Amino acid sequence: FVLFFRFPPLLFLTKIATPFSEMEEAAPPSFVFKLGHGQTGCVRDALLSLGWEEFDSSKHCADDFNVYWCNSRPSPLDLTRAQSWQRFNHFPHSDNICKKDKLTRAMRSMRFTYGTVFDFFPASYILPTDMRKLQQDLKARKKGSATYIYKPSESSQGRGIYLFRDLAELRTEGSSVVQRYIERPLLVDGFKLDIRLYVALASVMPLEVYIFENGLARFGTQQYDMDNIENVYSHLTNTSINKHSPTVEESKGSIGAGCKWAVSRLRAHFKARGIDDARLWNDVCGLVILTLITLGPKAATRNCFELLGFDILIDHNLKPWLLEVNMSPALSLDVDVDHNVKVPLVRELMKLASLSKADSFRREYQSMLVKACKRQATPDAHRTGTVYTTVRRGRPATADPVCRRRRHPLRQAVDDSVLCDLAKLQDQADVQDQEEEAGGDAGRGSGSGSG
């Protein structure tokens, strides 16, 4: 119900969802998921384990699916044509916080408007626009006293990232972001780490956010050393980089082999060393909410949910810093900790998609509504497409007065007890169709006899 309250004109349509629990014990059709190109087995395995069925073009029609999971955002046309039983795994305009340059603009604007409450984002410069400001900042500091990190705006997995201290070391390629490097991060046995936090966005207006309790702590695979800023295995925590480190499989103190922990293990590490992290996690939750507020009303739409990956660095004072937000966080299963975190993550995420038992019927569900509308609407309401759109969108398809009058018969049809059981409705519809055909044949027969 939470996904529909922003569309009040035909709220009574949600009544259809409840009577399906009173159907016969026969199992309803399974939910169908559709994967875009390049998707990992984690999503497929998690949904298949829930009893879902993967979309097959040989036996499913084009829109006969419940969830479409892809890396790219749905187009406006996709959202316009979306059926009531369908969900997409991205909101429109979510790239306003998922691209590094756009995130920098959003954080800069919010900090200018609301002050230091947004001071969880490092000082950043968008290149080439802010090149002069960056030059002034470098000149104002003693040479070599400050370290900066360069990031291409649209890159991922640590590609193109490097540290520098002098303007002569800066190598730019297209749109990019330069951030003040946080030189005193929290270390575990001398190794740098950051946190990949998984955040589920169920609604934008109103804001409905869920933070998965067990994210990933990602470590550098060589000792943190500010005297050697060119060592990517020391300063970058991206798994895609550190899995190629020569020391990745070596034991690193309490970290052990590898470069990942579950966040639950990190919190247990904090507790074992007497670190009270309650305030830290409260600050992290506030950071997430304040970041998502910047999405604004443009991203608000129905039929969508989203999984975001927040990369958060903790400094030596236990202050969280937002590094970036990932629109399609990696869900590959490289090591056991990935399986323990990511598979339950996808399963829980599907619960937030708000799919009801009625949504599993898809075509049958809508077909019954269309037939009910045809029988109780005016004679000129037999245009399937128009009635179908009226039922699906929750508002008349055109400004035609006939369409507006159709809403009242539709209300009567939905409130009618016949709709409380889809199977019974189907049987009655078939009987009525047969009677109409028989009556038509009799009429034609009598007419030909009298002639």
SSE string, helix = H, strand = E? EHEEHEHHEHEEEEEEEHHEHHEEHHHHHH
- State the end-to-end distance: 59 Å
Determine the mean pLDDT: 78
How would the global form be characterised?
globular
Annotation field: number of helices: 15
> Structural class, from secondary structure content?
alpha+beta
Taking pLDDT < 50 over at least 5 consecutive residues as the criterion, the unreliable ranges are 1-27, 378-423, 446-451
Q: Proportion of β residues? A: 15-25%
Can you put this structure into words, describing what you see?
By secondary structure, the chain is α+β, with helices and mostly antiparallel strands. Helix content is 36%, strand content 16%. It is built from 15 helices and 15 strands. The protein has helices at 41-49, 76-81, 95-98, 100-114, 131-140, 232-235, 239-242, 263-272, 278-293, 336-351, 363-376, 384-393, 401-405, 407-415, 422-450; strands spanning 32-35, 53-54, 67-69, 87-88, 124-127, 148-152, 162-164, 176-180, 187-188, 191-203, 208-211, 216-219, 260-262, 306-314, 320-326. Strands 9, 10, 11, 12, 13, 14 and 15 form a 7-stranded antiparallel beta sheet that branches. Helix 1 packs across helix 10, helix 11 packs across helix 12 and helix 11 packs across helix 14 (407-415). The longest helix has 29 residues, at 422-450. The protein is globular and about 95 Å long. It starts with 31 loop residues before the first strand and ends with a helix. Mean pLDDT is 78; it is low at 1-27, 378-423 and 446-451.
